[in-house]
Amino acid sequence: YEKLDVRPLRQRLLVVANRLPVSAVRRGEDSWSLEISAGGLVTALLGVKEFEAKWIGWAGVNVPDEVGQKALTEALAEKRCIPVFLDEEIVHQYYNGYCNNILWPLFHYLGLPQEDRLATTRSFQSQFAAYKKANQMFADVVNQHYEEGDVVWCHDYHLMYLPKCLKEYNNNMKVGWFLHTPFPSSEIHRTLPSRSDLLRSVLAADLVGFHTYDYARHFVSACTRILGLEGTPEGVEDQGRLTRVAAFPIGIDSDRFIRALELPQVQEHIKELKERFAGRKVMLGVDRLDMIKGIPQKILAFEKFLEENSAWRDKVVLLQIAVPTRTDVPEYQKLTSQVHEIVGRINGRFGTLTAVPIHHLDRSLDFHALCALYAVTDVALVTSLRDGMNLVSYEFVACQDSKKGVLILSEFAGAAQSLGAGAILVNPWNITEVADSIRQALTMSPEEREKRHRHNFVHVTTHTAQEWAETFVSELDDTVIEAQLRTKQ
Ligand code: ADQ
């Protein structure tokens, strides 16, 4: 929370994201308790210290009554957060439906759900209508709190319709939009029934940002091929108006991790973990339990490794920490059972009375426990099938300066572009290749590990979340000023 407190002012920044960085739990008619929530965006923006930032978003709870809404608004104001109240039906159609069932899988190359393939299906149309309605509700709240000169930064696939709604309120508003997921090839995007509407709404922003140059290129191609607009080195042009499109790779607050390692409670935890896993190499996976993270593929590759390297069976342990998300969605429930089944089978096959090869935990770890785990890990396994960036790989590197462990990283994570030279890159679909890279990582010479780690550590500590946000916001400012100069000429 301390990171959300008021700091010396530089510029007012309205950060608009689907979720606020806190979860609210109702304690009484007019009392709420607030808890910080995990997730990539939260982690990144907690690192931003230089702006007077206010957050606008949904608190993750249905609050139908006015007393509750008023009390929650007041409690959140202390954390510089402003709620958008969404009712259950909207959440179902907009969030569970259009965002998580349509855009999320599509942007990660998992295709559209079968029954929604036709634009004419009722569920698709009503979900898209709810999506637009929800985005309009976000715009209404932004507009109520907007003051001239504010920078409005919209985040992620939940709010692709927001730039358009904001510009309709006030064409002078400085609006940026950043996507945390991949933007897929235009051939994938063009299967989306609402493809043009979404592109046009995003183009209403002054600056559009992605994690990697490839995603930015895919977006520009989608605009040229689907909308027939002109792509320029700067972005996309429509009737003389330019929308800047660029890559802004996110980072983490690396100091926060490095400092945490010195804390007595973290040191204590490290000691305990070292004792518990003495004599065994520790491999680690930390993911939200989501199909894009390639958890079953990772575990199957580990099984293949154990199969082919019998001498390693009692010398290595895989700790897989998976926070359940979207637990009410049947596909996610299926994934949980699938992972449990594979882990059970492998532990039955290779375990002994005293030790099992895989420890799988379905839960979130607190920050200090996570840092300790990263620090004792010999090999981190990130096998996302697609991932916008993947901050876990950055966090692992930040905590490894004494151990210099190895990062095995999917080539389909955005992080492969920045940490590729230090990591062992793999195709997560190729289980044999991942199994081989596990052996390579476990047997790598200390000199090679040092060299690879150094490369990644320098990157992670110099490309921070704070720098990412500052770059985006100053670029947004410049873009708006340049556009104003152009119209004056
Ligand atoms: P996520 O898909 O949530 O983020 P990621 O970037 O890996 O993925 O961030 C996850 C965050 O949650 C990390 O900070 C991690 O420490 C934390 N976390 C994960 N599992 C945890 C556990 N079991 N216990 C505690 N903490 C846990 C989205 C995109 C990513 C993109 C980010 C930021 O999908 O590709 O990198 O946004 O843009």
TrEMBL record:
Keywords recorded for this protein, A-Z? Glycosyltransferase, Transferase
Instruction: Please tell me which top-level EC class this enzyme sits in.
Output: transferase
Q: What is its EC number?
A: 2.4.1.15
Q: Name one GO molecular function term.
A: alpha,alpha-trehalose-phosphate synthase (UDP-forming) activity
Q: Does the keyword Secreted apply?
A: no
Q: Name one GO biological process term.
A: trehalose biosynthetic process
Task: Say if the entry is tagged with keyword Glycosyltransferase.
Answer: yes
What does the sequence similarity comment in the record state about its family?
Answer: In the C-terminal section; belongs to the trehalose phosphatase family.
- Its protein name is alpha,alpha-trehalose-phosphate synthase (UDP-forming)
| Native source organism of the sequence | Populus trichocarpa
Q: Which residues of the parent protein does this chain contain?
A: 77 to 565 of 922
